[in-house]
UniProtKB/TrEMBL annotation:
Annotated organism of origin: Novipirellula artificiosorum
Region (Disordered): 16-60
Annotated keywords: Signal
Ranges of biased composition (kind: Basic and acidic residues): 24-33, 46-60
Domain of life: Bacteria
Record's signal peptide: 1-19
Protein name per its UniProtKB record: Sialidase domain-containing protein
One Pfam family in the UniProt entry: BNR_4
Length: 480
């Protein structure tokens, strides 16, 4: 889906487009800046070389590291499926980076490394194997499917250093696994072994959670959110947000977590929301999505937006009018002002876009438009007006520093300066070979890092991470 329509001189025609988010700190997990290089595949080993040289090393443009060679082989899954690397498959926390993916044992592998250049250590978690015969839930063939694009591994890391995993879902019973507390907060104190992770559960401390699709974790300060689509499939399902804080899931049941309801007065009476992402910026939660009436992709319609300034308790439409209260008053397709662009069904407008919010509070959405070509939408926080334009590229949006907006697509990185967003330029290209057998996933915390964008992907069974330097200097140097 995130394909680059290759031309090195790409034009982005849109009224305006700014940016803010960043990359990667050069500091180690203990906060020091020593030139310490790990010499072992185990970051907890004592095989280190330490140097007190004061002069910093030259900053490379691109760093590529091999996470492992145990990625799930492509011939296990359905032909053409982009089965690996879901939301949060790459996540940085406290100077360390973590990766989660399906491996060649049909188990979830979790890897970690100390930044900036530590060696990766990988563990394959026993206790759950992805197979064709496993009973995944009560939705019949859909929940028992194997190897399609719905079953990716999602990961999130909470403020207390717990690594959370959700995996193998397509209208399925929840498959949730977590690490012990402080594993990611104090990684050097925890040798990287499978004993760090608890058994797989079908709940979050409350009742069993059924009919799960599209898990996605998001950090909001000390809170960790888990989005789940529940209570149905494409064209007829609800949207829920669970919340973890202070060591446990504070919102952990179906009723308290529900935000978007599937029922409405149009179409065949039901829809489901396909979010482009939940972005938290300066304490405000921003949510954009499109509706879909049936399992047929051509029934997608409308671009919708809502925001919350009280950590998701109440939700307002584009004009600041209350339209939702978590667990009590549900947003639906009849909610006033919920659609910021009316786009009818029956076109090539599709779910599956990307979203970000820049430092000035401008909301950006990139997705496939009515003609099947990439379309770009932007909200001005001052006027509350939405505008749209055309672009030649689909990919993952990242708001960068100095009012730049980055697009990551198939190993390529492009950027647009806010002062003239029609000049979309190639920042990096040439790493497509790292991502030939998967959909690349961008580090979920790249907006909180220092001038790096990290991308994970797979070619053959080799899982790799490419780190792209997006520092403000030398932006004209577009090749590594």
């Amino acid at each position: 889906m995130y394909r680059i329509f290759l031309t090195l001189a790409l034009l982005w025609s849109t009224p305006s487009a700014p940016a803010q988010q960043t990359g990667r700190s050069e500091k180690h997990g203990d906060g020091t800046s020593r030139n310490e290089v790990l010499m072992s595949n185990d970051p907890d080993s004592d095989d280190r070389v330490s140097s007190d040289v004061d002069a910093p090393e030259p900053r490379p443009h691109v760093r590529v590291s091999t996470v492992a060679t145990n990625g799930m082989p492509k011939d296990i899954v359905k032909r053409g499926s982009t089965w690996n690397f879901g939301p949060g498959s790459l996540w940085t926390h406290n100077g360390w980076q973590y990766a989660a993916y399906w491996d060649d044992q049909c188990q979830v592998s979790v890897a970690r490394r100390q930044l900036p250049k530590g060696a990766w250590s990988v563990i394959s978690l026993p206790g759950y194997k992805r197979t064709e015969n496993i009973d995944r839930g009560k939705a019949g063939p859909k929940s028992q499917g194997f190897g399609d694009s719905h079953e990716k591994v999602a990961m999130g890391i909470s403020a207390d250093g717990v690594i959370h995993l959700a995996f193998d879902h397509h209208v399925s019973t929840l498959h949730y696994r977590r690490s012990k507390t402080s594993v990611a907060t104090h990684p050097m104190l925890h040798p990287w072994t499978t004993d760090l992770f608890e058994p797989v559960k079908d709940h979050l401390g409350g009742p069993t959670i059924e009919a799960v699709t599209y898990p996605c974790f998001t950090r909001d300060g000390d809170r960790l959110l888990l989005y789940l689509r529940l209570n149905g499939g494409s064209g007829s399902a609800d949207s829920h947000f669970f919340e973890y804080a202070n060591g446990q899931w504070q919102i952990n049941d179906f009723d308290a977590s529900k935000l978007i309801d599937k029922h409405w007065s149009g179409g065949n009476g039901t829809v489901n929301a396909y979010p482009h992402g939940l972005i938290v910026r300066d304490g405000r939660r921003h949510l954009t999505w499109c509706w879909r009436d049936t399992p047929v992709a051509s029934t997608c319609h409308d671009l919708c937006y809502a925001y919350s300034d009280d950590h998701g308790k109440t939700w307002l439409n584009n004009d600041g009018v209350l339209i939702g209260v978590l667990g009590k008053q549900f947003i639906n397709a009849d909610s006033p002002g919920v659609a910021v662009f009316r786009i009818p069904p029956g076109t090539r407008y599709q779910n599956g876009g990307s979203m970000t919010v820049d430092a000035r509070g401008r909301v950006h959405v990139l997705m496939r438009g009515e003609d099947g070509q990439p379309a770009y939408f932007q909200r001005d926080p001052g006027t509350k007006q939405w505008t749209r334009g055309k672009t030649d590229v689909l990919g993952t949006l990242v708001a960068g520093d100095h009012d730049r907006l980055y697009v990551v697509a198939d190993g390529n990185v492009l950027f647009a300066p806010a002062e003239d967003p029609s000049k979309l330029s190639v920042r990096y290209t040439g790493n497509e070979s790292l991502f030939t057998d998967s959909k690349p996933s961008v580090d979920a915390m790249c907006g909180d890092l220092d001038r790096w964008i990290s991308v994970i992907g797979q070619s053959g069974t080799t899982v790799s991470v490419a780190d792209y330097d997006v520092a403000e200097n030398d932006v004209s140097d577009s090749q590594p």
